[in-house]
Structure formats: C-alpha cells, structure tokens
Recover the amino acids of this structure.
C-alpha cells in the first residue's frame, strides 16, 4: 500500500499548520505549506509595488516566479518554522511571516489566474502521495482525490485567541477580532476556490484540543484509512 495524500483545510486560527506539521512528522510524510507559496509571491508583489487590483501583472508575475519548499533545519524547527521557503532561489522563510505579507497573500489568493499557476505547482509537489498539505482549498481543488481529507475548525473565540498569541509572539499588535472576521469573510466568499468543506472530508472541531491532541486524532484516522485501502487492494489483487 502506497502512502496517502492527506488534505487539511480550515479557516484562519484553526491550527492547520501546527497540526499538519505534526501529522507529517509522526507518519514520516512530507509537510507542504501551501500558504507559504502565496506568501512568497505576495512578498515579491509587495517589493515590486504591484497592487492587488492589477491582476494581469500578478498572473504574469506568478508565471515567472519559482517558489521552492524544503524541510526546516533543526534550529528552524525549534522556532516553529514549517518549511524553508525559497523565492527565485533566495530563502525568504522569515520575510514572508509578517502581517502585511499575510494580508497581501490573502488578497492575491482570490485571483483565478494566480491560483491556477500555484495550484499546478502544489499538485506537482504532492504527486505520488506521502504528503500532508494544508490550506483552504486542498481537499476541494488541489487534491480532490486525496485519500484522507480533514476540515479543521474551532469556535471563533478560540481561533481569535490563537491568532492573538501568534501575533504577540512576533511583536505585532492588531485588532484580531476584526482581522479574523475580514479573513473569514474573504476566504468563504471569494469567487475562486472559496473555503468550503469537501463532501467527503472529516470534520474535526478542535476548540477543546491542542495541536498535539488534534494531530493524534488525525494520525489515527490516517492509519485506519491505510488499513481500509490495504484491504481493498488485497481483494482486487
């Protein structure tokens, strides 16, 4: 039995990144941070002063940009880094983790042409299985045939508190309730690949669970799925 493709979707503050990284580590899979790809492109757009309303330039920029992901160094991993991110061969792992870049990435992700380019890159990166990828359209658009799909969610109060803690660690002050509300609205109402739960995704509400507990649950689901697929393969042999 080959390794699974695991897709984890959910809104901001649901803990997708921490959970997905832990699941990948336990299973020996490769973790791919889809959001980092949008952030890297957003960083380039911000640096070149290309505004979010200039769709033609942004699509062209995406086509001419190379974004690479690789596992973090042990030192980076201790600080919570999920992937090392390379923009046209230059590491931008730290540069993409600012509120301004995150906001630009969220806007950029609503552009159909940009998503088309980056989704193709994500599909190539995850071809062959043995990957855990998280985002907002992984189970519906990027990997619609993933063997295991998770929709991770939590109550708004818990998600807002998690985001507050993240920003506090970075020394950033912001009105998180307002930011979260705007982010949720943009993610769920955008015309291209809105945040929705795939019909065959398992809903996991982790309002009362930390990242470790959530990851353990998803690992159990993955191992059960591996067993089911193994039985099916045995019958078809």
């Amino acid at each position: 039995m080959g390794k699974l493709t695991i897709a984890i979707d959910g809104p901001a503050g649901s803990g997708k990144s921490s959970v997905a990284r832990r699941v990948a580590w336990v299973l020996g899979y490769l973790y791919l941070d889809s959001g980092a790809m949008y952030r890297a492109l957003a960083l380039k757009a911000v640096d070149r002063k290309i505004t979010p309303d200039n769709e033609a330039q942004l699509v062209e920029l995406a086509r001419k940009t190379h974004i690479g992901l690789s596992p973090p160094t042990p030192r980076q991993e201790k600080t919570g880094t999920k992937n090392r991110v390379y923009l046209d061969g230059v590491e931008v792992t730290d540069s993409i983790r600012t509120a301004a870049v995150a906001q630009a990435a969220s806007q950029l992700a609503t552009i159909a042409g940009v998503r088309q380019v980056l989704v193709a890159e994500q599909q190539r990166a995850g071809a062959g299985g043995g990957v855990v990828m998280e985002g907002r359209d992984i189970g519906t658009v990027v990997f619609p045939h993933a063997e295991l799909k998770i929709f991770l969610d939590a109550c708004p109060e818990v998600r807002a508190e998690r985001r507050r803690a993240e920003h506090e660690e970075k020394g950033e002050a912001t009105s998180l309730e307002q930011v979260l509300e705007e982010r949720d609205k943009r993610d769920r109402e955008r015309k291209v690949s809105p945040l929705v739960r795939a019909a065959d995704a398992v809903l996991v509400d982790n309002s009362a669970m930390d990242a470790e507990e959530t990851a353990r649950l998803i690992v159990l689901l993955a191992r059960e799925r591996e067993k089911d697929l193994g039985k099916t393969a045995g019958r078809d042999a």
User: Anything to note?
Assistant: The mean pLDDT is 87.
